[in-house]
Design a protein that fits this description.
Blueprint: H1 3-24, E1 28-31, E2 34-40, E3 56-63, E4 72-78, E5 86-93, E6 97-100, E7 102-112, E8 124-129
Antiparallel strand pairs: 1-6, 2-5, 3-4, 3-7, 7-8
């Protein structure tokens, strides 16, 4: 065997072991996710100094890929104070968090002043993390 053939095989074996290692150990890279959604505050108004009960205090962001009972809270954003009508384009961004590459099921819930939250299944979508 020539040195060239040995070098080629060694390079191939090295590349194969790197690819195999990448498949075994998923890459965790920090990402932020921006959630943009609509909410109808005419049904349940946002909290304000005058409205302190039965109102939306904030919106919470979750990764529910492993199921709702195993949800992971990613962040939250406050509800627009005193809003009482349909509001398109509410937006909030998570802090930079570690995520495995691949598909994730994420959801938003409305958190009321008493701490209860809306059904996560009603505002969920799949995102693909590169």
């Amino acid at each position: 065997m020539t040195a060239h053939v040995l070098l080629y095989r060694l390079a191939f074996l090295s590349l194969f072991s790197v690819l195999l290692g990448a498949g075994i150990y998923p890459q965790e890279i920090t990402h932020t996710i921006t959630f943009t959604f609509d909410y109808d505050f005419s049904i349940t108004p946002a909290c304000s100094p005058k409205i302190t009960k039965a109102c939306v205090q904030q919106f919470n962001f979750y990764d529910i890929s492993q199921g709702i009972s195993k949800r992971v809270k990613l962040g939250s954003t406050p509800a627009p104070t005193g809003e009482t009508s349909f509001r398109p384009g509410i937006s909030g961004t998570t802090d930079s968090l570690l995520f495995n590459s691949g598909r994730h099921l994420v959801a938003v819930s409305a958190q009321m002043a008493d701490g209860t939250e809306s059904d996560l299944r009603k505002c969920a979508t799949i995102v693909k993390i590169p």
